[in-house]
Structures are given as structure tokens and as C-alpha cells.
Amino acid sequence: MRSLFYGCKLLLLLIFSGWVQADETWKLEFGGGLAAYDTPWVDMPIQYITLPYINAEYGRWRLGVKHGIFQYRLSGDNWPVSLSAGLNYRDETYDSVFSFNDKLSDDPVFTGYQSPDGEVTAQLNAKWQHLSLSVSQDVSDHSSGTVADLSYMHPLYQGDRGVQFLMGGGARWLSEKYSDYLYGVYGDNIAPQYGRVTYQAEAATNYQLTMQLIYPFNRQWSLSAQASYEWLDQTIQDSPLVDKSGVGKVMVFFTYRKM
What we know:
- It is built from three helices and twelve strands, in the order H-E-E-E-E-E-E-E-E-E-H-E-E-H-E.
- It is mainly beta.
- It has a twelve-stranded antiparallel barrel.
- Strand 4 and strand 5 (82-90) form a beta hairpin.
């Protein structure tokens, strides 16, 4: 499943790279980076990911790491609020396709556990100055759940060469269906002998703190680093699959912008 997913991503990147070379109206940003992040699962090792970074824009169409499978800009050039809609792939499950470590948890609670699948989601995004809102809804008939992310990032420092240091935070709301899809225990996954007792998670609200550094070396090359921490709602912490009250993430990317 993972090799097929990333194979399709690589094929799309090659196709879009060819389009960029053939048409100067495309805007392209590409590079690579590293992400290290914690997960809420019991005794789960820290996950490390090295992956390519690419974003492409053509007119109102956008795709890539920042934009998901694709986005279409709904707002006009002079609108004070930026609006876009599109499709994305969401997978925060125990055995996620975004977990590159071969080693999962050794805790007995996951003995015989069948992890749910990732989902294709419809997504609506809105941004006004430093305030952003994103709402995603499962359209692949897995959880039928909804997630809403509200964040505010304020630039604490802006240098003459484009250097920026931003800090902010926000809230992440998970509908009951999605929260229970990830952290609930029911059906064939019930195994009291391993501590996997029946559990139904409720709707959850997690709070986040984020810091970001953007450092341009010149007009084309730049470094972007981000660190964030997310406090988990009590209904998530109470799941027999979870042993943490919060999770952290660090990402560093070097990117090249085609002028």
C-alpha cells in the first residue's frame, strides 16, 4: 500500500515537472527535508521521515506538500480572504503510510490489532492575514469524520532579506466519528487479555503551539524549519491505545524556487 502510494506521488511529480519545463506560466518550488514526530500510541518509537518537497501552481490550480493532492483557488486576486477547495489524503492511524519506521510498538496492547485505513478527504481552506482555517471531510467511506484546524501565526521578526520568525498556535477539532475511528476499540479489535477493552472516543479538541523560521539564502534557495506541540484531548488520552498527553513534531526543509 505504501509503495503504491509513494509510487503514484513520484509519477505525479515527474509529470508536473515536465509540464513546468514546457510552460513558463507554471510556478514550481521543490527540494527535500526531514521530519521527526511523536505519535500518541502506547510505546511507539519516534517516527523519522525523509521526503521530497514539491509545490506547483498553475493559474488557480495548486498541488504538492502544502496543498495535498490538489487545490483550486476560489477567491479572486483582490479578495481580502483567500479561499480554496480540493482533495487530500489523511492517515493518522496506528499503522500509517506516513510512518516510515519498520518497527511499530512492542506493547502487548497492539497484539493482533487491525489498524484502520487512511482516507481521501475533501478540504476547504480559508486564510485572512495571519489567521487560517482548514476543514476536511472523509469522502472515501472510512470514518465519515470531519477535522477542523484553526491557527494563528504571528511574525515576531521580519528581516530585510526576508528572514522571518513566526510563533502562534491554534486548535484542532476532531468529530466524534473521526476520533472514535482512530482511538476507539470495538468489534474484532476487542481483546481484554491484552488490555484492549471496549472504548468509544468522543469528539476531541486539541490545542497546538507552533514556531517557524524561514531563512532565504537568496531569491531561489531557502530554509524552512518548524517545531510544534499538540496537547491531546482527554477522550484521546483515555483510549487504551494511547499513553501520552501530547505529541511533538520537528520539520526542516531546503527548497528551490524556479524563477
